[in-house]
Amino acid sequence: MNSQTEISKQIRMRAQNVDVFYGDKQALKKINLDIAANQVTALIGPSGCGKSTFLRCLNRMNDTIDSCKVSGDVSLDQRDIYSKDVDVVELRARIGMVFQKPNPFPKSIYDNVAYGPRIHGLTNNRHELDIIVEQSLLRAGLFDEVSDRLNSPGTSLSGGQQQRLCIARAIAISPEVILMDEPCSALDPIATAKVEELIDELKDHYTIVIVTHNMQQAARVSQYTAFFHLGEIIEFAETEKIFTNPVEKRTQDYITGRFG
Amino acid sequence: MQLTILIITTLILCAIGFFVGRRRAVSISRQKTKKLHSMPNFHGSYVAMWCAIPAFIIIVLWLALEQQILNALLLAHFGSSIADLDSVQIELLINDVKNIASGSSFGRGKSSDILLNAADHYESLQLTFRASVLAAGLSFSIASFLWAWKRISPTLKARNYVEFAVKVFLFICSTIAIITTVGIVLSVLFESIRFFGQISFWDFLFGSHWSPQTAIRDDQVGSSGSFGAIPLFTGTLTITIVAMLVALPIGLFSAIYMAEFASPRFRKTVKPILEILAGIPTVVYGFFAVLTIAPAIRGFGTELGLTVASESALAAGIVMGIMIIPFVSSLSDDAIVAVPKSLREGSLALGSTHSETIKKVVIPAALPGIVAACLLAISRAIGETMIVVMAAGLAANLTANPLNSVTTVTVQIVTLLVGDQEFDSAKTLAAFALGLVLFVSTLGLNIVALYVSRRYREQYD
Ligand SMILES: Nc1ncnc2c1ncn2[C@@H]1O[C@H](COP(=O)(O)OP(=O)(O)OP(=O)(O)O)[C@@H](O)[C@H]1O
Ligand SMILES: [Mg+2]
């Protein structure tokens, strides 16, 4: 197991000995992973290996699934996020998430982005809110396409636009960490390129964890890569190292497309 | 009698036809080397089908035309002796003859010879007619049976014919409900038009005084009747509003609890129970209204120094609301559960609480379904009769005060049509006009509800 690779950068999140069960079925086994601040960490691995499950541990989204039991330590800035005195709601405000399938609310584009800031009372007046909405849409690379129809429903956008809307919605509350679960799986190459560009920019301000099935994407956008297989981390290292010189044979086989 | 014989023989013929047709198909397929186009069973069904169709047509024609034909023949029998009678008198005459013929008239002894004669003639006419129809039906059936039987051959596309016939049959069944509804609507409509011939449409729709009692005989003391339906509309409205004020919040909140907070086990037990509640006969709710709620409201009102009628809109409305709760909660629950999980997760992941998520994402997303549920509930409340008869009284007061006794459209329809009726007095016809109003308004509500819930479905598919 090579998951204890030393990270030279500052560490923002750390998972230690994380086990996850769905009922009796173990989905993750003894996961250890460090997530570097202001870097992009990619999670790769064959379908069903537990990438989404791990991602959802990081913002306690698994709490919403009754049968799901998480044990082990997950910390954000050295504080255990599963300890009793942590407020889940506040935690999720600090750790944003973009889902695999775009899920805009059935509200206007503006209200979709303004949802978070309104809930958390981030603004004092409409003008400040306008600025946040515009900024978020700009950074998500969507503003030019929707600036003239902010009041039309978010669900009326194309799939790729919806996904960028969801990204805008996530960054509108300025989270410290952004978790992305296959954000480009529903997108065409052009939209994918836009999102990748966005991820690259975002990493200056945010810490990003991204799940992807696309090896090129992992290689392009991430600095660190973890390879999951059957609920375990087989290998974790700098992306460059994983893709050029993996230690494990299984990693090599997966990356070169020999299984998965 | 003859009809029964015809039906039974046709059924027997069909059964025979099936087996004979099948046998023939089997034996043909044995003799010849050529393959049958259809399986033997289809050939059997084909023959059976051809037995049934002529008989069916004859039966339908028989039922539809027997009276007209017999009446025409009877009139021909009277000949020129009735030339100067008008249509009403002719109708009476025919009725007399029929009554004597069927033996239900007390006056056989007293009736004139002409009538007795005619009655005997009518009886013989009927007998001949039925016998000939029976004979015609049977011979048609047998003829087409033989024809179909002869046609059986390897190339006969029996399967296609049979399946087409099945399709037509199913189509007829599916249209029966619609045709019946159209029939009901038309009959209500025509009676209403007759009513509006006597009472002006505007007086009915906008008149504020309702007292439908009319004198039956000219020398009777009695009002000439007044048909302003506004008090009925306001009464219906008051009770419906009270009912919705009870049903909407309770139904909606219980739906939210069941869909969002309750454990799956609680939900699995409580939801069916609620749906069973929807099946309690409304009369039983009526008892509850009369015996429990009305006295309680009265007592409470007296404590507060209010005068409460012993039969009040409030009592009826509250009980009606209780009756609709299961309806509202069950439909709203479905709408809330149908909101995709991904929307909830999206909201939770932005750091909103469970209740914020419900308030700002789940309910707005489920709103069309909830609105549709409410509209359906309202149309049930408007159409509900029994509770109001029992608990709200009959007095057509024009009032907005729910503590008074009021009456509703449905209740008045009932009272207008209970007891002895003349079917052409304004009083009786008024019931049809009210029925029409009721029909149009609930139809409108249901259409809106359907439209709203359709749009809602489009959103997530
Ligand atoms: N809600 C759930 N209830 C029960 N089992 C679950 C649930 N969600 C996931 N699992 C199981 O946990 C395992 C890991 O699932 P997970 O969704 O994390 O896979 P993944 O790596 O994200 O796969 P993919 O690439 O297909 O998205 C799978 O075997 C899956 O069957
Ligand atoms: Mg996944």
Task: Explain briefly what this protein structure is.
Chain A has 260 residues and is of the alpha/beta class. Chain A has helices at 51-58, 88-94, 109-119, 126-139, 143-146, 159-171, 189-202, 215-221, 239-244, 249-255, and strands at 11-22, 25-36, 40-44, 68-76, 79-80, 95-98, 177-181, 207-211, 224-229, 232-238. In chain A, 35% of the residues lie in helices and 26% in strands.
Describe what you observe in this structure.
The complex is a heterodimer of chains A (260) and B (461). Chain A is 35% helix and 26% strand. Chain A is globular and about 55 Å long. Chain A contains 10 helices and 10 strands. The two termini of chain A are 20 Å apart. Chain A has a 6-stranded mixed β-sheet, with helices on both faces. In chain A, strands 2-1-4-5 form a 4-stranded antiparallel β-sheet, covered by helices on one side. The model of chain A has no long low-confidence stretch (mean pLDDT 89). In chain A, a hairpin with a 2-residue loop joins strand 4 and strand 5. Chain A has a domain of 168 residues: Rossmann fold (3-Layer(aba) Sandwich), CATH 3.40.50.300. Chain A is of the alpha/beta class and 260 residues long. The longest helix of chain A is centred in the middle third of the chain and has 14 residues. By secondary structure, chain B is mainly α. Helix content of chain B is 77%, strand content 1%. Chain B has 15 helices and 2 strands. In chain B, strands 1-2 form a two-stranded antiparallel ribbon. The model of chain B has no long low-confidence stretch (mean pLDDT 85). At the A-B interface, helix 2, helix 3 and helix 6 of A face helix 11 and helix 12 of B. The structure holds adenosine-5'-triphosphate (ATP) and magnesium ion (MG). Adenosine-5'-triphosphate binds next to helix 1 of chain A.
Topology:
The complex is a heterodimer of chains A (260) and B (461).
Chain A: E1 11-22, E2 25-36, E3 40-44, H1 51-58, E4 68-76, E5 79-80, H2 88-94, E6 95-98, H3 109-119, H4 126-139, H5 143-146, H6 159-171, E7 177-181, H7 189-202, E8 207-211, H8 215-221, E9 224-229, E10 232-238, H9 239-244, H10 249-255
Parallel strand pairs in A: 3-8, 3-9, 6-7, 7-8
Antiparallel strand pairs in A: 1-2, 1-4, 4-5, 9-10
Chain B: H1 2-31, H2 40-78, H3 87-102, H4 113-151, H5 158-198, H6 201-206, E1 210-211, E2 226-227, H7 230-261, H8 264-277, H9 282-303, H10 313-337, H11 341-349, H12 354-383, H13 386-391, H14 409-417, H15 426-460
Antiparallel strand pairs in B: 1-2
Helix pairs in contact in B: 1-2, 1-4, 2-4, 2-5, 3-4, 5-15, 7-10, 7-12, 8-10, 9-10, 10-12, 11-12, 12-15, 14-15
The structure holds adenosine-5'-triphosphate and magnesium ion (MG).
